[in-house]
Specification:
7-stranded parallel beta sheet, binds uridine-5'-diphosphate-4-deoxy-4-fluoro-alpha-D-galactose, single chain, alpha/beta, Rossmann fold, globular, about 15% strand, about 40% helix, binds nicotinamide-adenine-dinucleotide
Length: about 350
């Protein structure tokens, strides 16, 4: 029996690669389009080692409108999971043009190709960053959207574009997924997060300290209004997130119109709690120093995750201990990422 084809933009990236595994296991055929600006082609071989099926990779930039239109005509996907984008907050502040061009223009080019090809089912990677500094936690989907950096602004613009598209044309089926903090790796240790240069995010940084690649972690502030003074976030196992995409895909295939959902656990975890959980997973101490607060950071951010549970019947299953164990397994098996 043939598998329904799913176009996966950014499918060699961190979250996209895990989603490919879940898609294959759920009976779909992912077809990847990625310009490899932040990933490696080796990922497709790793996905094959896990699942027995190697996805085809088209090395193409989404902004190459003609190539994307040709690709859509050729593969006629039943749906698209749209992960491709740039995601470094600091870089988006210093180089906003690059972010608007890549994230907004890349999406417009993709949507034009899908519309022309009659392939109007889409799941979009948005982010909790759209909420900026929330008035209250947990954050429901109805909370005001007010991003504090160009990266977040590109997510808000694409969300609005998708809502406008659904309002204009009832043939579109769209899921907008606002992820909280994805961490961890596939339990095989074959795929994971491979940041280039110094990691921006907490867990990849801790992983490199645990591996001895970095001397210590800087904890960005211990004077936040939280229980232990360090920042609190909603960390979500990347495999739970990937499974959430399969649930959102099935929902989008069956239901027209837009749907906006938070994907998180609904649990806040502090930086200090994360350090302790990682120490338990890797069996050694994580040296850390308290540093000044990082510009633009907020104290606390976690999801009201009830809507995804109600609408998709999806909820995260994996614990904080599993997130740290799988991150460490990936880090220790692949000290230099995919190199
Ligand atoms: P990633 O950088 O690992 O993956 C993104 C992939 O997109 C990369 O493989 C990159 O090469 C590709 N890409 C970028 N621009 C492209 C373009 N113009 N054409 C073709 N390919 C392009 O990032 P990720 O962590 O897997 O994130 C995936 C998506 O989820 C992004 O849209 C990101 O903004 C969003 N997101 C991520 C997080 C997170 O913490 N990782 C949180 C919230 C939202
Ligand atoms: N932190 C440290 N030291 C570090 C890195 C981070 O103390 O070296 C702290 C931060 O101050 C924060 C927490 O760890 O309190 C988490 O920081 P991350 O950078 O891992 O995650 P953020 O929540 O700040 O941001 C991430 C992505 C954003 C995205 C957001 C919500 O970087 O793009 O999650 O999805 F929008």
């Amino acid at each position: 029996m043939s598998r329904p084809r799913i176009l996966v933009t950014g499918g060699t990236g961190y979250i996209g690669s895990h989603a490919c595994v879940c898609l294959i296991e759920a009976g779909f055929e992912p077809v990847i389009v990625d310009n490899l600006s932040n990933s490696s082609r080796i990922v497709t071989e790793r996905v094959a080692r896990i699942t027995g099926f190697q996805p085809v990779l088209h090395e193409t930039d989404l902004r190459d409108s003609e190539a994307i239109a040709r690709l859509v005509r050729e593969i006629r996907p039943a749906a698209t999971l749209h992960f491709a984008g740039l995601k470094a907050v600091g870089e988006s502040v210093s180089d906003p043009l690059r972010y608007y061009d890549n994230n907004v223009c890349g999406t417009v080019s993709l949507l034009q190709a899908l519309d022309a090809g009659g392939c109007r089912v889409l799941v979009f990677s948005s982010s909790a960053t759209v909420y900026g500094d929330p008035d209250t936690v947990p954050i429901p989907e109805t909370a005001p959207v007010r991003p504090t950096n160009p990266y977040g602004q590109t997510k808000v613009i694409v969300e609005k574009l998708l809502l406008d598209l659904c309002a204009a044309d009832p043939r579109w089926h769209v899921s907008i997924l606002r992820y909280f903090n994805p961490v961890g790796a596939h339990e095989s240790g074959l795929i994971g997060e491979a940041p280039r240069g110094t990691p921006n995010n907490l867990v990849p940084y801790i992983a490199q300290v645990a591996a001895g690649k970095r001397a210590h972690l800087s904890v960005f502030g211990d004077d936040w209004p939280t229980a232990d003074g360090s920042g609190v976030r909603d960390y979500l196992h990347v495999m739970d997130l990937a499974e959430g995409h399969v649930a959102a895909l099935r929902h989008a295939l069956a239901n027209p119109g837009p749907l906006t959902l938070n994907l998180g656990t609904g649990q806040g975890v502090s930086v200090k709690e994360m350090i302790r959980a990682y120490e338990a997973a890797c069996g050694s101490q994580i040296p850390f120093r308290i540093s000044p607060r990082r510009p633009g950071d907020i104290a606390t951010c976690y999801a009201d995750a009830s809507r995804a549970r109600e609408v998709l019947g999806w909820q995260p299953r994996r614990s904080l201990a599993a997130m740290c164990k799988d991150s460490w397994h990936w880090q220790s098996n692949n000290p230099d990422g995919y190199q």
